[in-house]
Amino acid sequence: MSEKKNQSKKDKKSVRKRPTVDEYFTAMAELVSTRSTCLRRQFGAVIVQNNHVISTGYNGAPKDMPHCIEIGCLRDDLGIPSGTQHEICRGVHSEQNAIIQCAIHGESTKNGTIYVTGFPCKICAKMIINSMIKRVVLSGHYSDTEGIDLLKQAGVEVIIMEKSAKTILDEVIALKASWQRTD
After folding, report:
1. Is residue 70 among the annotated active site residues?
2. The whole model's pTM is what?
């Protein structure tokens, strides 16, 4: 009888699959992106040190400034294509906000990992390089791919997830539902 019970426990343990560390933090970045106030794209970023979240960021207007969801998008009004003329935007990118939060709260980004729900632009790539982040995990795409080239030239490890952050988050939620007890 006890042998059967032990076998049942083993079967249950082998059925339960946890997300990988990269999937876990990528799903978290997707959740962070839901706070974005950009009308065009919603990005999220999570900075991690030793598997510990030290900062998050999403794209939106500077602190205490009106958001695009409130006043509209100047880039849309001017017909500026995505991935160009970043200076004509009131938004601060998710990667920038995450790095800024580390500075405000005294957290070192050195040798950390940043998870981002899209490709970093050239400006964000330079900030990532100078903040000494050593690993970038990306999910989703963006029209400006020059940032990835800069990261690689600087020796930053770049991982591009096969699935989008939203797909990963949906799978993690479904996975949890499949093994979570309801009693």
Report:
1. no
2. 0.86
